[in-house]
């Protein structure tokens, strides 16, 4: 499964977002995490806040799809809000 394509369909503009990211050399969720939020906002044609959210969703999707991926923060036993 192409998890970057899934992220773009769920939280972006679908194929347009995916095309822009790939043209910029970002082909994986791991690569997405290395892009500065300001540059990502420019690529996605959105605000920095939305770009940060997109990266956050990408990180969560990466963690869910790859159990060996390094977690960005420890999990807690708190119920979801």
Short description:
By secondary structure, the protein is an all-alpha fold.
Your description of this structure?
The chain is an all-alpha fold and 81 residues long. It contains five helices and no strands. The protein has helices at residues 3-11, 15-23, 29-32, 37-44, 48-65. Helix 1 (3-11) packs across helix 2 (15-23), helix 1 (3-11) packs across helix 5 (48-65) and helix 4 crosses helix 5. The longest helix has 18 residues, at 48-65. The protein is globular, with a radius of gyration of 13 Å.
Per-chain topology:
Blueprint: H1 3-11, H2 15-23, H3 29-32, H4 37-44, H5 48-65
Keywords:
81 residues; globular; 5 helices; 59% helix; mainly alpha
Structural class: mainly alpha
Rounded to an integer, what's the Rg over CA atoms?
Answer: 13 Å
Biggest sheet descriptor: none
How many helix segments? 5
Q: Give the overall silhouette.
A: globular
Mean pLDDT: 87
